[in-house]
Amino acid sequence: MKRLLLLLHLSLLFLYGNNELEVKQFMVYKSTDKSITSQTISEKNASFVPLTSQEQLKDKSAIYWIKVQFSPMIKSGKYLVAYQEFDFSLSTFSPQQHFNRFISNKVAVFSFEYDPNRDSTTYYFKLINCYKHKTPTLSIIPYNKYYAEALLTPDSRGFFLLFGLIAGLIVMVVIYNLSIYAYTKEVSFLHYSLMELFMLWMLFYQVGILSLDIVHFNMASLLSGLFANLFMQSFLDTKKYLPKLHNALNFYIFLIFVDILHLNTMSYSLISNFALYSFFGPIYFIVGIWRYLQGFKPAKFFLIGWSMLVVSIFYTEHMGDIYGINPLLFGPPLEAVLLAMGLAFKLKLLLDEKREQQELLIHQSRLASMGEMIGNIAHQWKQPLTYLSYIFMNLRETSKRKIVDISYLNKKLDKAGLQLDFMSQTIDNFRDFYLPNKEKNLFSLKEASEETFEIIQPEFKEEYIRVVIDIKEEAMITSYKSEYKQVLLNILTNAKEAFQKNRIACPLITILFEKNSIIVSDNAGGIPKNILNRIYDPYFSTKKGNSGIGLYMSKMIVEKSMGGALEVENGEEGAVFKIKF
Question: What is the pLDDT of residues 502-527, one digit of tens each?
Fold first, then answer.
């Protein structure tokens, strides 16, 4: 009914004539006096030249004003005015009239209050965005009559409460996703947040929370469209999986940038004027469906959310309000929630992928450590094997002489057994590195450190590396013992390599035990300042042939798996690593 009533009034609109409803005169004037303002226009209206019905608004040097004179019989109350084919930047309505502009039933409107004892019946509007080939039109209807069947009117408390809830929901979703972006640096969350912010800006103008400014409204629309495209590209990864459609979206982004420049210079939007939003809308669905068919499950949230937004936009543009409520109020928040769910799903996939990569790095790190350990085992087995070979030679010579002395034989066998026990113990010392324990256990940091030191001790003896252990307070922790030993082994190995590289005459490592922390320091000269902040980066190494994942995995193990912290700094004589639990 309201829709039909508005169309009836629009059919009674006229140009340069009288209206039988409430408008007595509606005239378009032009003037070359650019100093005219809404405060001085009544004094300078003598400089106006009225346009004839055949004249068009083509004179770029002129300023155009519309003069509207209401009938003296207009009653006191609130009114709604619909206007088409033009826009204005200034008007002569007073602040007491609570002038407000918004969009209702896809028509630009403004509301005002009128008191015949206080207000004038004549008003001026400074024209902008006037289409030169079209006729400016205007009509007026009592505010309460237009919203007679509306559940909520734009000035009611219920409407402000509803809009506040919707705006609050969008703002919370934006803050949440911006927080995720701050921690993950995943640009999908940034693009999505900016898209929702500019869409909320549009809603403020659309429903009249902010008095409609068509230039700002179109700017918000363009920026929202820009970040919607960027969000789609990053969220659906179109560059990798749909390169041709990705280029189509890039072309649309180019058009948006061109239109932003045009809007800033000419004060109207080409994309809005030629309805290009509806042209690119289907492309969004094609991209979403295609990615979903490729197996990207988060795309279904994108499709459902985008569908709700498109339906609300379509209904707003072609069907109008629903009992006085703009359908666009419901599309954006529903879309915001569904896209947030899609982003959460994608974040889960990213975390799963990252976890798999970390597990692969851990596996690579263990393989690298395994290679070093096998070398250590071979080094520690060299002497026992030589001794066993010597025993076997003695036994062979004895058997050749056919002189069997049971006492001598038992003595040699006992010595061989001792060597085999040593070799077996060596294997036991390394076993934890091959079969890491996946359950947390209570263990002593001191004992675990001594076991680690035993593994690398033969190499340290060869390099004359002295290790000093200082126990201020022995600590017991519940964590992964084998992973702690791997971290400490990585630190000790790096110290040994630094001693070799810098040719330190008296290499010294000090291990200080404090409450819930271990400090490992050396006198190898320290870490160069230009790489100090990069030593934990994966695959970063200054040593040729090194995988560069040892310290990275050490930090990951301590901070992610054991819930501690691994810090490094340069001391007076060398590097200082501190492990905190």
Answer: 888 888 988 888 877 888 899 888 88
Is 483 within the bounds of a domain? yes
Residue-wise pLDDT for 190-202, tens only, equals 998 999 899 899 8
Residue spans of alpha helices (H) in 111-213: 143-146, 157-184, 187-206
The DSSP element (H or E) to which 10 belongs, if any, is: helix 2-11
Closest Cα partner for 64 from 139, 132, 12? 132
3-state SS, residue 71: coil
For the full predicted model, state whether its pTM sits above 0.70. no
Structure tokens at 547: 């995988």
Same-domain status, 190 and 62: no
Residue 373 lies in a domain: no
Residue with tokens 């010595």: 415
Residue 382 located in a structural domain: no
Q: 23 pairs with which residues across the strands?
A: 70
Yes or no: say if 391 and 416 are a contact pair by the CB < 8 Å rule.
yes
Range of the domain at 443: 438-581
Q: Which amino acid is at 549?
A: I
Kindly tell me the sign of the dihedral angle through the C-alpha atoms of 256, 260, 261, 262: positive
237-240 long-range contacts, CB within 8 A, separation 24+:
237/291, 237/296, 238/287, 238/291
Question: Is the separation of the CB atoms in 570 and 524 below 8 Å?
Answer: no
Question: Rounded to whole angstroms, how far apart are CA atoms 65 and 16?
Answer: 13
Q: SS3 of 508, please?
A: strand
The token duo for 452 is: 């680690």
Q: What is the mean pLDDT of residues 183-196?
A: 89
**254-264: string of b/e by CB count within 10 Å (b at 16+)?**
ebbeebbebbe
Where does a domain end: 146, 180, 212? Answer: 146
- Dihedral in degrees, nearest 10, Cα atoms 369, 374, 379, 384: 140
Phi, psi of 356 (to 5 degrees): -65, -40
123 and 187 inside one domain: no
Of 493, 466, 572, 578, which Cα lies nearest the Cα of 526? 572
Domain count, the chain: 3
Q: Which two tokens stand for residue 148?
A: 């007679």
**Domain C-terminal end among 323, 353, 383:** 353
Does pLDDT of 259 surpass 80? yes
Rounded CA separation 125/118 (Å): 20
Instruction: Give pLDDT, residue 547.
Output: 54
Helix (H) or strand (E) segment spanning residue 518: strand 517-522
